[in-house]
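hey m, so remember when u said the tokens were messed up on ur end? i reran from scratch. heres the input so u can diff it against urs
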Amino acid sequence: MKARCLPIAVLAIATALPVLAQESGKLQKLEEQILEQKARAEMEKAKAEAAKAKAEAEKAEAEAEKARAEAELAKIEAEKARASLARRQVRHRPRRRSGRRALAGVNAMMGRPAPGAHTHDGFFLRFTVGPGFGIFNGTGHLVTAQGGTDNVSSNEGGQAGGSFSMGGAVAENLILHGDIWLTVFSDEKRGNQLYQEFGTAVIGLGLTYYWMPYNIYLTGSLGFANSFLTLRDRFAGWNDEDRASETARGVGLSIVTGKEWWVSDNWAVGVALQCEFSYAEGEDSDLIFRHGGAKVLFSATYQ
């Protein structure tokens, strides 16, 4: 019985194997189709997302273009408003006002500095005054009112003076100017109620340079000095016959450094230190005057 069933089993298996192989191939093909459809679906999804991202980018670019257009429009409107304001300002200004002053008014309304404000250009004017300390060294003899002579003595002490300068800019922050400065010693008592007084006035040429925006300057001046020395009694007046004086001529040198602060578009006030020296000789006498000193100056400058 077993021997008879064995061929049948072998025949059944031989018949089933091709069917199983065919079914296995169909199943594998079906799986491949499913995977292919899935991959195609993923690809379609990726394309859809890419298209969406592209659309969003195009939308953002369109919004950016719109914002740029609005900014340009706003800029044009601002320029129109500025031009209209300038025209109204010029139209309503007094006829005697210069074009520069009108432009300064427009700039002030628009928050811009006026042309030439807080700059060192054009016309220059400066006044200074202040106290200081000086040294006077003199040699020779001074003819007294009684016809005799008296030796000139050297001394030191307090002094005071001032200066006046006027000129114009020759380059940016560089000014060439004419100068006049004066220094007078306080009375010096020599004994027996006799006082000696000395003073010098210098007319010269100076050069000033400003370091901006700090408004710090350095001035150098050189000129002709005219010095005087006076001997007088304590109670003698300037026109008293007991007063004796002599003059001498020479050269004077001044170096000034200072700092200024603007108080308007063109006016500034400041403080400075002046160092000065003068040398003078008498024309018809043996007098020689040497003077050196320093002063603290308070200044007012127009530029």
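this time it looks ok to me. Residues 11 and 27 are 25 Å apart (CA to CA). if urs says something different then somethings off w ur setup not the seq
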